[in-house]
Specification:
Elements: H1 15-22, E1 36-38, E2 41-43, H2 45-56, H3 93-98, H4 113-116, H5 122-140, H6 147-150, H7 159-164, E3 177-183, H8 189-208, H9 217-243, E4 249-251, E5 254-259, H10 276-291, H11 295-306, H12 319-340, H13 346-355, H14 357-377, H15 382-388, H16 397-417, H17 428-439, H18 462-491
Parallel strand pairs: 3-5
Antiparallel strand pairs: 1-2, 4-5
Helix pairs in contact: 5-8, 5-11, 8-9, 9-10, 9-11, 9-14, 10-14, 11-12, 12-13, 16-18
Length: 492
């Protein structure tokens, strides 16, 4: 217990002394006014409360000076000269100015990591350290090779092979750093997408080790497919916001960047086409700069993105385990925000972060469509083909023309066999056109085939390109039909 210095000769008084003491208005401990007899001593209300807490919680209080400190008004900076608690922004300027020499002002909330992290529970601190270790391990990699020289990996064509045998990626993870050192080259974009897929696999593998349920290979594949593009979009946005203040630059994970006007610089935008870069800079990077997320908050959000219990093709058995781990990470994120930032607005700040995730999902869907388009019409990577599947495309002009010529030749032969008919009720050309119009209906459609182009024609959507192909094919068929009919009619 702290030792209290009192200048009166004794703390025990008779009734007359108590009446006389009550007339005094100065506290014998701190010198404040409006004092009265409390616990056998003339003390103010504040000192009385200190005495009471000391008596009630004697086993919980511990003196930092080995019970050899002096209790004076210097240790009570939150009270003014009138023995009233200081209220921020509610005091007259005259009173605030007069007490400036006797008070140190309101105590600010500690912002240092070493101070606020101690306020978390042991379980939360363990969770944060595990997530930070996962992020550091994935970012560091295990090789010094360049992206373009190692990716795509040869001999690895499916996610199942990697997840069932993680040693296949040993020594094949390059270091990832989002630094605007140079502008990315056009042929590096597919390597960047490939490296981010390996990072998504590593995130899922490490997070499943924190679950109380052992996931199957199919469940891990489902989580990887679900979190690949959202995690890539979030990492690009948050790292760009933390690294650079340039509003026209977006950082990539291979020490490079791409400009806002990507289409005017690169001939093939790969997974960043369809105006994805400007949208990402305006809708995510800009608000994330205002958030100024810490590394602890960043890894918690990354884990929340990966642990989606509603992922497509995910079995029902691990649902409860994924929900439980995700809730623990969310609770940890809330306490990190509460302790490291303004505790009064912790829930508001957490809400802003969670409301940004639908934007991440929307941009991830656009990136997913870009990757499917690139896998179909541009350079095909087997591992990404296994991730997204193969997009079917209608046959192009050459085969359509050959099929049409065969149909017209057959119709011409049938017309030749029927030209010796005894009765003709209408001219030959009109009859042939009428017959040809009905013969266009084909009962069995020819089998569809898949095609590849060396380079995507432009940054249009897939549906727009297919519509253009159908219109062009109809025009070609119409011209062929007209020319064949004229030739046959002239022969007759």
């Amino acid at each position: 217990m702290p030792k209290i210095e009192i200048t009166i000769p004794s703390l025990i008084h008779d009734s007359d002394d108590e009446d006389e003491a009550e007339t005094s208005d100065l506290c014998r401990v701190c010198g404040m006014g409006n004092a009265a007899m409390h616990y056998g001593c003339i003390a103010c209300v504040g000192c009385k409360g200190f005495f009471r807490r000391a008596l009630i919680s004697a086993d919980q209080l511990e003196c930092p000076h080995e019970n050899d400190c002096t209790v004076t008004k210097a240790v009570r900076p939150s009270r003014d000269l009138t023995s009233k608690s200081r209220r921020k922004n509610k005091m007259p300027e005259s009173v605030a100015g007069s007490e400036a020499s006797t008070s140190s002002g309101p105590i600010e909330k500690p912002k240092s990591k070493n101070e606020w992290i101690k306020k978390l529970t042991v379980e939360m601190r363990t969770m944060v350290m595990n997530l930070l270790n996962i992020e550091a391990k994935i970012m560091k990699g295990d090789t010094t090779c360049e992206f373009s020289k190692i990716y795509p990996l040869k001999g690895i064509d499916s996610l199942r092979d990697i997840i069932s045998n993680p040693d296949l990626l040993k020594g094949k993870r390059t270091e990832m750093r989002y630094e605007p050192f140079r502008m990315a080259r056009n042929n590096e974009l597919h390597s960047i997408a490939y490296r981010r897929l390996i990072a998504a696999i590593d995130w899922v593998e490490n997070l499943t080790g924190l679950l109380d349920f052992k996931l199957s290979i199919e469940d891990k594949i489902s989580l990887v497919k679900n979190c690949y593009t959202p995690l890539m979009v979030f990492k690009i946005a948050i790292r760009t916001a933390l690294i650079t203040k340039d509003e026209n630059v977006m950082c990539l994970c291979n020490f490079s960047y791409v400009p806002r006007n990507l289409a005017s610089v690169f001939s093939d935008s790969y997974h960043l086409a369809n105006g994805l870069v400007p949208r990402l800079l305006d809708e995510l990077v800009k608000p994330y700069r205002e958030f100024d997320l810490s590394e602890e908050e960043l890894v918690c959000i990354s884990a929340i993105i990966c642990l989606n219990p509603l992922a497509k093709d995910l079995s029902t058995e691990p649902f409860d385990a994924i929900i439980e781990l995700r809730n623990r990470i969310t609770d940890t994120l809330f306490h990190i925000i509460k302790e490291s930032r303004n505790s009064a607005k912790a829930s508001e700040f957490l809400g802003k972060i969670l409301l940004s995730l639908p934007i991440v999902t929307s941009l991830a869907n656009t990136m997913c469509e870009n990757l499917q388009f690139s896998q179909t019409f541009s350079r095909a990577i087997p591992l990404l083909t296994d991730l997204f599947g193969c997009f079917p495309v209608e046959p192009f002009e050459d085969e359509a023309q050959s099929n049409n010529v065969m149909d017209i030749s057959q119709l011409a032969l049938e017309h030749k066999n029927s030209r010796d008919a005894q009765t003709q009720t209408e001219p030959r050309a009109v009859a042939f056109l009428r017959k040809r119009r009905h013969d266009n209906v084909v009962d069995i459609e020819p089998p569809q085939q898949q095609f590849r182009l060396l380079q995507a024609p432009t940054n249009y959507y897939i549906t727009e390109i297919l519509d253009d192909l159908q219109v062009d094919m109809k025009l070609i068929l119409l011209s062929l039909k007209t020319s064949e009919v004229e030739n046959i009619a002239s022969d007759r």
